[in-house]
Amino acid sequence: MSLLEFYGDTCPHCVEMKPMIEKVEKDLGVSIEKIEVWNDEANATRLQDIDKGLCGGVPFFYNTETKAFICGSSDEKTITAWAKGEKADGIGYEK
Question: What's 45's domain CATH number?
Answer without folding.
Answer: 3.40.30.10
